[in-house]
Amino acid sequence: GAVVSQHPSWVICKSGTSVKIECRSLDFQATTMFWYRQFPKQSLMLMATSNEGSKATYEQGVEKDKFLINHASLTLSTLTVTSAHPEDSSFYICSARVPRDISYEQYFGPGTRLTVT
Amino acid sequence: AQKVTQAQTEISVVEKEDVTLDCVYETRDTTYYLFWYKQPPSGELVFLIRRNSFDEQNEISGRYSWNFQKSTSSFNFTITASQVVDSAVYFCALSGWGYKLSFGAGTTVTVRA
Questions:
Q1: In this model, does residue A99 exceed pLDDT 80?
Q2: What are the tens digits of pLDDT across the range B99-112?
Q3: How far apart are CA B85 and CA B76, in angstroms?
Q4: A61: Cα separation from own chain's centroid
Q5: Is A40 exposed, middle or buried (0-12, 13-18, 19+ CB in 10 A)?
Q6: Which of B44, B46, B51 to probe the A interface (max A CBs under 10 A)?
Q7: Among candidate residues A28, A35, A17, A40, the one with its CA nearest the CA of residue A109
Q8: Do residue A44 and residue B32 have CB atoms under 8 angstroms apart?
Q9: Does pLDDT of B97 surpass 90?
Q10: Which of B30, B103, B108 to mutate to test the interface with A (most CBs of A within 10 A)?
Q11: What is the CA radius of gyration of chain B?
Q12: Does B54 touch chain A (CB under 8 A)?
């Protein structure tokens, strides 16, 4: 099956610093990846759609200058949280689509738990 | 616009009881997919089922079963003879044109021994 990995699985950073989260498709090439954020006891909210070789499309209310997304290759998308603050502490999950898969299914990474102190 | 509603926030049952999770959706797309995911305390989403809008057949997989009714825009999920390992948050989700997934708020299922 399609496998998606994320690194790191958890990270603690100080307020004001930046942190990068990687999302990799391990056994397929993903032209489209998605980034979600999940606060405790809440649902997953789509942050942005990342397309290989082009700019990411951000959902309304998501600051694109704060959450930098780079999809430089067909197997890697990165999310950089710039100048992180405690309110950015959350569970970040990425997913990927298999190209030409008509099922609309997304394959999810295991998530990255970010804590900003 | 897409919307998924899971009206039940929490459900608590005793082991071996059946539990049904409700999911109601809204979409203007004629082609769409519905999903159920399980999220255990570890956080990783576990895919349970996918159903497209043209396939209204109900499905059974072991202790899990799903009832898709297009007429009422519902895609309900039943766990039969629940077990403690079924304790998790369950999400219903909808994907239509553009492939964006919209998640419901989730239902926390607690199965007590």
A1: no
A2: 889 999 999 999 99
A3: 20
A4: 16
A5: exposed
A6: B44
A7: A35
A8: no
A9: no
A10: B103
A11: 14
A12: no
